[in-house]
Amino acid sequence: MKKKLNIVVIIFLFVMVNFVFSQERLFDALGYESFYNGISFKKAMQNNSLQLILGMFYETERETDDNAELDLRAALRVRSKFWDSKRVKVEKFIEGGIIVDDTHQEDVSRTNIHVSVGFIPEVFVTEKFSFEIPLGIGLVLQGESRENAGDNSTRIETFGRGLDLNISFHVYF
Fold first, then answer.
1. Which of 15, 62, 71, 144 lies in the 20 to 30 Å Cα band around 28?
2. Are 88 and 114 in contact (CB under 8 A)?
3. Beta-carbon neighbour count of residue 120 at 10 Å?
4. How far apart are CA 39 and CA 123, in angstroms?
5. How far apart are the C-alpha atoms of 172 and 166, rounded to whole Å?
């Protein structure tokens, strides 16, 4: 598990060093994306934008389990302009993501692949700060890496409804 944490830290530091020292900006906005619990990097290109999300989840060992949990998360969203006003922008998106989930049991880990489509209303509080709530539908391909697990599954889910709105934010440069 230490090896995976070291890899995440190295990737994060590499991205940040490139971001700080490059003459041309790699990204136009930096923020937090709640679904993947990660740092979001956005790059705008005319009416489209790309969003790269890198995140992780860590939970210490519990009394009833045999190890801690470390999830590594990454996603790429392609966003396209749908509707625009001065303070509110709505974009349609398609996304591919992966969550490598080391569960609390030593012999079980799971890799889930997420494919989602939908809309993202983005509300600008100021010219450089915005909140957004992805709304849409996703397909989740769940897989166990343990031998003979036999419980791989596919799940269709919606997000952005009820009390769990997955509110994210961005700061533009």
1. 71
2. no
3. 21
4. 19
5. 20
Average pLDDT over every residue of 105-119: 80
pLDDT of residue 94: 95
Residues 6+ apart with CB under 8 A from 103: 69, 109, 110
Arithmetic mean of pLDDT over the chain = 79
What confidence tens digit (pLDDT) does each residue in 19-47 have? 555 556 778 898 998 888 889 999 988 88
Inter-residue contact 170 to 130 (CB < 8 Å): yes
Q: Could you state, in order of their start, the residue ranges of all structural domains in the chain?
A: 2-172
> Token pair for residue 71?
């999830």
Question: Options 3.30.428, 2.40.160, 2.40.50, 3.30.720; which CATH number does 2-172 get?
Answer: 2.40.160
